[in-house]
Amino acid sequence: MTESYIDPQVYDLYDEYCHTQMTRREFLNKASALVVVSGSAVAMAEALLPRYAKAQMISFTDERIKATYVDYDSPGGSSGKMRGYLVRPAGDGPFPAVLVVHENRGLNPYIEDVARRAAVEGFLALAPDGLAPIGGYPGNDDDAKVMQKSLDTDKLFTDILNSAKFLKGHELSNGKLGVTGFCWGGGVVNKIAVVMGPELNAGVPFYGVAPPTEEVAKIQAPLMMNYAEDDKRVNASQEDFRKALEANNKNFVMYNYEGTRHGFHNDSTPRYDKEQAKLAWDRTIAFFKEHLS
Questions:
Q1: What is the pLDDT of residues 119-155, one digit of tens each?
Q2: What is 62-292's CATH superfamily?
Q3: Do the bridges between strand 81-89 and strand 65-73 make them parallel or antiparallel, or are there none, so unpaired?
């Protein structure tokens, strides 16, 4: 995706919009008050809004995969039931399994596409919808982030954790589980690594907030962390996380991607950095193939 210049103030406002209860109207109104070097701040703000149809990389009809929605039990979660998007490679299996955890707005089309990308690479991929217990992703991110914010955070995490366990034990799984996630989902990957211990085989969080340093000792899975260079909110916890991992002799690697902002892997907005996103994804796939095969 190639876009014209967007002022850093607008990027910062968009980050606030994504991670708070700010509505789209409030976002655009605040953008109209910004003074930018050239162009229209409102036009820049509108350009940052996701365009999922243009961003799709792997079609749901791709002959290399088979995709379907599945329902499964989730004891202790928001409703006791969960729903996710399960994508398998063509063939008989079993396959190494990868859970794909969404951002703070449920199972939107970008995350479904990421699950298909993983399946094309030979993984049994499940992208759970944390909003399923209250009706599922509503078709737009504004309502979705409000819905996700309304959920009990512990029960929501339990639903994602149960999704990981469901996938690991699936009849098409080889029993090896990897988890990747983005933004809120990146933080969930780190928390799953703490909670699952040796039951998790590999984790790859994208710009995810680190777990409390006192819990790092519980991590057993190899981790690969992908960070944006310009991401003050998430990167504030990065160095302490690194020190705790090193102090506990954990198997990990951290990458910071030059010239990127939070969300650089999401190809539905101009935050997307095609070159760096490809590099991060190629590393992710190679990491999973190393630890899950």
A1: 999 999 999 999 999 999 999 888 999 999 999 999 9
A2: Alpha/Beta hydrolase fold, catalytic domain (3.40.50.1820)
A3: antiparallel
